[in-house]
Design goal:
Layout: H1 3-12, E1 17-19, E2 22-24, E3 28-31, H2 33-37, E4 44-45, E5 56-57, H3 64-74, E6 78-80, H4 84-89, E7 101-105, E8 113-124, E9 129-138, E10 150-154, E11 162-166, E12 175-181, E13 184-189, E14 198-202, E15 209-213, E16 224-229, E17 234-239, H5 242-246, E18 258-263, E19 269-274, E20 283-288, E21 294-299, E22 312-318, E23 323-331, E24 340-342, E25 348-352, E26 355-359, E27 365-370, E28 377-383, E29 386-391, E30 394-399
Parallel strand pairs: 3-6
Antiparallel strand pairs: 1-2, 2-3, 4-5, 6-27, 7-30, 8-9, 9-10, 10-11, 12-13, 13-14, 14-15, 16-17, 17-18, 18-19, 20-21, 21-22, 22-23, 24-25, 25-26, 26-27, 28-29, 29-30
């Protein structure tokens, strides 16, 4: 977009301001080609753990104008890289205001925790409720502790959702992923020294739980992380080294990192991708596309703060008994895509530091849905055309012009 076009927009719509190489509306910042191609400062750098608006301006000329540009992006609710993003937001352009609602702030973590994590988010349409698990990432020298409760959000009243702690029985042991299937919620729990990692089925009404899968021919799984289930009952789940390598709360791994397929009807189980073939190390999030012909898998790598870390989403074709044709779908510029979701139109959503990044079906970044400054988006759940975003600190929601898969 040329500067003449930008100036014309400014004259037509005075509520839109011009910042070098940006179009700035009430809640949207549109990034232009010029900004994307050439960063507006002569010397800069950025750590992989921070979002793009926290790019560090190094020694050089006056930084004030460039810092103002970054601050403008930081203060937006949405960052637009492709005009197709406006269609998803349900607005015609940057002139219209759009809101990301902040609907709940979680209590602070205990003193032994480095941070809190909210993962395993799932919507139960029969009850019009959402669940999300809570984890406390321990400080050095501590192990992760099992938490007896999960969070329940009743959204019958959209204006004032009822959010409370509820207690599965028996309790979950460090739950991560969750999936709704045939009226039940299936959790992938990491386990600990005394409880093997497993898939647990929970009745969303009574909260009664039952372990339904906990071994690979007598082997303990390492640390199950996420789970999806096909309409025919084929369960795919990721298993990484998180418990042993990151949190010191599980037994030494005897299996490679991997993605498994478990047939609930026959009991057959096999690894369908993983570190043994050099493809994945610490696989994490999973999401089917709208017709379950594709499976998206996020790969963390050894550490999300490692410049050599994976930070990728892979796309795979789903066959009658496994996965084929793996291709790299996207590479995140900050952190790694923890929870991933899709919508009925083929877009892919990745929860990362500072935002939910939204890609078109071909892996092109369309835009970012921002969370509060300093927060990290961990996972999401669709409830109709509302996307609920679960951060480390807060719950957010945004109404979009689509629905979940």
């Amino acid at each position: 977009m040329t500067s003449l076009t930008l100036r014309s927009i400014f004259l037509l719509f005075p509520t839109i301001s011009l910042c070098k190489d940006l179009i700035v509306g009430p809640s949207v910042v549109e990034i232009t080609k010029g900004f994307n191609d050439v960063f507006p400062y002569e010397n800069f750098n950025r750590n992989v753990t921070v979002p793009m608006w926290d790019t560090h301006l190094l020694n050089g000329k006056d930084k004030s104008a460039s810092q103002e540009t970054l601050d403008t992006i930081a203060n937006a609710s949405f960052i637009v890289y492709d005009v197709e993003f406006y269609k998803l937001l349900g607005i015609s352009g940057p002139l219209e205001k759009k809101e990301v609602e902040d609907i709940f702030t979680f209590p602070d973590p205990p003193s032994y925790a480095e941070r809190q994590i909210h993962d395993g988010s799932v919507y139960v349409p029969e009850e019009n409720i959402l669940f999300v698990a809570e984890l406390f990432s321990p400080k050095e020298g501590y192990s992760m502790e099992a938490i007896p409760y999960i969070w329940k959000m009743d959204i019958t009243d959209l204006v004032s959702p009822n959010i409370s702690k509820v207690y599965p029985n028996p309790p979950l042991t460090i739950a991560n992923g969750a999936y709704h299937f045939n009226g039940s919620v299936y959790w992938a729990q990491e386990g600990n020294m005394t409880t093997p990692s497993s898939i647990v089925r929970m009745d969303p009404r009574t909260l009664e739980t039952e372990v339904v899968k906990n071994n690979f021919y007598g082997h303990r799984f390492n640390s199950m992380n996420d789970i999806v289930i096909s309409e025919g009952g084929a369960v795919y789940f990721t298993d990484g080294y998180y418990g042993w390598d990151n949190f010191n709360d599980t037994l030494f791994p005897e299996l490679a990192n991997g993605i498994y397929r478990w047939d609930m009807q026959t009991g057959n189980i096999k690894m369908v991708a993983g570190a043994v073939e050099g493809a994945f190390f610490n696989p994490n999030g999973l999401a089917f596309n709208h017709d379950q012909s594709k499976l998206f898998i996020s790969n963390r790598g050894n550490s999300s703060s490692d410049p050599d870390g994976a930070r990728t989403i892979y796309i795979n074709d789903v066959t009658a008994d496994g996965l084929i044709n793996r291709n790299m779908f996207s590479y995140s510029d900050t952190g790694f895509p923890d929870g991933i979701k899709t919508d009925k139109d083929g877009r892919v959503y990745g929860a990362v530091v500072g935002s939910v990044d939204v890609y078109n079906p071909h892996g092109t970044l369309l835009g970012r849905i921002k969370v509060a400054d300093g927060d990290v988006a961990v996972n999401m759940a669709w409830a109709g055309d509302w996307l609920y975003i679960f951060g480390r600190n807060k719950i957010y929601r945004v109404k979009l012009a689509t629905t979940g898969r």
